[in-house]
Amino acid sequence: MARKDLLDIASLHREEIEFLLDQSTSFKKLFTRSVKKIPALEGKSVLMLFYEASTRTHSSFEVAAKRLSAEVTNFDVAHSSITKGESVRETIETLQAMRTDYIVVRHGHPGLPAMIARQTTASVINAGDGAHEHPTQALLDAFTIKEKFPDPRGKKVLIIGDILHSRVARSTSTLLQKLGVEVAYLGPGSLVPKYGPATIPRFTDYEAAMAWAPDVVYLLRVQMERQDVQFFPNVREYHRVYGITTARLAEIRDKGLYIMHPGPVNRGVELCDAVMDYERSLITNQVENGISIRMAVLDWLTPGGDFPKQEAYAARQQAGSSLLMP
Amino acid sequence: MLLLQNARIASENSPVLVESDVLIIEGIIQEIGTSLAIPEGARVIDARGRVLMPGMFDAHVHFRAPGFENKETITTGSEAAINGGITGVVMMPNTRPALDSATAIATVLENAKHRARIPVYTSGCVTKNREGEELAEIEGMHRLGVIMLTDDGDTTADPAVLLRAMQYATEFGMFFASHCEVPELAGPRALNEGVMSYRLGIKGSPACAEEIIIDRDIRLARAAGAHVHIQHVSSKMGMETIRWWKSRGDVKVTAEVAPHHLLFTDEHIGDYDTNYKMNPPLRTQADCDALLEGLKEGVFDLIATDHAPHTPFEKAQDFISAPNGITGLDTALVSLHHFFVEPGKFGWDLVVKRYSAEPRRLMGLPVAAIEVGQEANCVLFDTEAETTFTKEFMKSKSQNTPFIDQTLQGRVDMVILGTEILLER
């Protein structure tokens, strides 16, 4: 079951997912102890390669690696040769020469972590590649949901917002479906693609989506930075039509629904301030669970000198299946 | 003196291959018939079982010179053509500097004369530096033999500029080749908008980005009384738009389709394989099927490869960063045989008509044919042999093709042009 890299959710087997969620439970128990560190990755090096800004994911991985006793190096993109026009490929050749054990990479270009993984012996973890995948976010979301619904099969999660640009929507919906959870999308017609997976119902009307009777409402961050054209008129209108307004929060409270959000939250856009104090908001749980999930992932992956995944890559490419939705 | 014995001769006019001997003397086909006497001193080639057809002609290639000789040169590009059974090409003008003046055209044609073993023609830009604003030096280029104008790769955005160019250049007997794409809709990433672009998380280019300009440019040509040639159509609706305009018969429109748009879909991109990154992008199986139908019907007048070499380093980047385009000259004829002729989807007559005769007619050139009195311009093709497209096999300077290291059925055995045997395996 050992893997060199974690690049996507689509290629993860159900047993691997269950294993990681179980391991995360074990690691989370450490958090209540006074000494939260274990020597699992002692002597190992973790390189943080973040081409895009990140607070939560970056610090979460860093804390996770340090709790496993790994050495963490932050690759300073802003002061690297990248600013002199060095290509990613050249950067990777340099980093490979340094023989790091793990590379945690975030980049705006989809598929780039997979490309790095093919060129290094380090274990590569995709910490978000453009609008493609964010596998550890999906795992922490699933873990958070399982804490409330130990058997999540048949539960319903409504994902609201910018589905088109969201790697979280792709990864989390794929993973939840693998666990037997029903998923639906809600958002503006310009941001909910008609050609998404056929197994996911798509709503553009809030009332219709709520009539679908979700157990969890998962709000996505409106990613203004990925929108090179205007997809909706303004954020006030967005909040009114698709956001959790004060009135909608009352309805959600009455129904006892859980609310999730991958952060950072645009207050007054996806949700009103009061949601942050809602007793069934799982937003801070997600942040906390991010650390134990990332510990589980780092502990699970096996860096290798002989590119153990090359054959698997070739097979996947041949089948063209790695990116298929379940 | 060359005597090809028992070759199966292909022509654009008949699906039947006629077995005959062909005698070539001093570069001219002197005699065609059965059991021809062997003249003294003649070289005799046993061509039994092999197909003899006119040399192909590719009306859409990028030879990258001047400016990008690290990707391709006129020499390497024309050798790739010969390697694939192609005996004439038309270059696109998106070089650096762009081919937008008589001076630039003269330089290319002079180079071609000395550095290519086949005729290399070139198109010229519609606008200066392909920027879509000022008209290029149209008459000056025409004086040097240019008849096709295109801002290749960049649709002339302003319809008023294109309309004026059409009104002006048509008076010289020139025509327009259109790369059809609304850039604001297409985006830069060369992936069909659909299920695959969603899965891969890449902004897709919808087929309507192509369809709109196909329709626009044909309407402009109709208004100007011009001839427009629609390049590398990729979509079903694009094909149907051309079919509808052709059925009206009140505008001169021709069109081409590339082998890769007949063969591959966006599903082939798989794990971001940049060898399938091209513009217009690969679309769906329904589009492939419609394009094949359009080719058989004659909606597409010609097959052209859009041969677009890029260095391995450029293509080895991630999908977003890698440039658009694949090579096609080394592989086109064998792939057409392997995927279409051999399985019986169309015959050699279609290949000869669409990849040899019609492209030459489009360019105002004499059509090559295996007929007495014609200059020898032919390809001997073994349908039973195989070709493996290794790096060593390719003559193009770049190997950015999905066929790399694949084995397909069919082999170009010999290419003859006039008194020269350009290739012999």
Properties at a glance:
heterodimer, A: alpha/beta, Rossmann fold, five-stranded parallel beta sheet, 9 strands, 13% strand, disordered C terminus, B: 425 residues, Urease, subunit C, domain 1, TIM Barrel, 13 helices, globular
What does this structure look like?
The complex is a heterodimer of chains A (326) and B (425). With 326 residues, chain A is an alpha/beta fold. Chain A folds into 2 domains: 150 residues, Aspartate/ornithine carbamoyltransferase (Rossmann fold); 151 residues, Rossmann fold (3-Layer(aba) Sandwich). Chain A is 38% helix and 13% strand. Chain A is built from 11 helices and 9 strands. In chain A, the strands form 2 sheets. A 5-stranded parallel sheet of chain A has the order 7-6-5-8-9. Chain A has a 4-stranded parallel sheet with strand order 2-1-3-4, with helices on both faces. In chain A, β1, α2 and β2 form a beta-alpha-beta unit. In chain A, α1 packs across α5 and α5 packs across α10. The longest helix of chain A is centred in the last third of the chain and has 18 residues. Chain A is globular and about 55 Å long. The C terminus of chain A is likely disordered. In chain B, α4 packs across α7, α7 runs parallel beside α8 and α8 runs parallel beside α10.
Q: What does the average pLDDT of chain A come to?
A: 89
- What is the total number of structural domains of chain A? 2
CATH fold annotation of the largest domain in chain A: Rossmann fold
The CATH topology of the largest domain in chain B is: TIM Barrel
Topology:
The complex is a heterodimer of chains A (326) and B (425).
Chain A: H1 14-29, E1 45-50, H2 56-67, E2 71-75, H3 88-97, E3 102-107, H4 112-119, E4 123-129, H5 135-148, E5 156-160, H6 167-178, E6 182-186, E7 202-203, H7 206-211, E8 216-219, H8 235-242, H9 246-255, E9 258-260, H10 283-300, H11 310-319
Parallel strand pairs in A: 1-2, 1-3, 3-4, 5-6, 5-8, 6-7, 8-9
Helix pairs in contact in A: 1-5, 1-10, 2-10, 5-6, 5-10
Chain B: E1 2-11, E2 14-25, E3 28-33, E4 43-46, E5 51-54, E6 56-61, H1 74-83, E7 86-91, H2 102-115, E8 120-122, H3 138-143, E9 148-149, H4 159-169, E10 175-178, H5 183-186, H6 195-200, H7 208-224, E11 227-230, H8 236-248, E12 252-257, H9 259-263, H10 285-297, E13 302-303, H11 312-315, H12 332-341, H13 348-362, E14 377-388, E15 407-417, E16 420-424
Parallel strand pairs in B: 1-4, 1-5, 6-7, 7-8, 9-10, 10-11, 11-12, 12-13
Antiparallel strand pairs in B: 1-2, 2-3, 5-14, 14-15, 15-16
